[in-house]
Amino acid sequence: MIKLKVKSGDVVKVIAGDHKGAEGKILRVLREKNKAIVEGVNMVSKHTKPSAKNPQGGIVKKEAPIHISNLSLIDPKTKSVTKVGVKVEGDKKVRVSKKSNQVL
Fold first, then answer.
1. Pairing mode, if any, of strands 84-89 and 81-82?
2. CA distances (Å), origin 12, targets 29, 73, 80
């Protein structure tokens, strides 16, 4: 399993695919599949049967996973996409923005 440079709560921009240009916050990271679920991006329609929880049933819109290679982190300072580097501060590793050199 590879080390991922994004984590839950990060704001990302889609740089490739059908939803190119869309921005959103990462809700969940699926490490074993190298995918992430981004808020409001890659929405799919799921048909649900009536149940006790949802007696009406019907069509529900929900986010589908998107591959991490199609995502780029947004630098909170410059508000533009940036690459992620790793720097050692003391005895701790921290993620650093390559554009603004600021800790993420």
1. unpaired
2. 12, 4, 10
Measured CA to CA, the distance from residue 63 to residue 61 in angstroms comes to 7
Fold observed for domain 11-75: SH3 type barrels. (2.30.30)
CA 22 to chain centre: 11
- Residues 19, 20, 21, 27: what is their CA dihedral angle, to the nearest 10 degrees? 50
pLDDT tens across 50-69, in order?
988 888 888 889 999 999 99
- Distance of alpha carbon 102 from the chain centroid: 20
The neighbour count for residue 7, using CB atoms within 10 Å, is 12
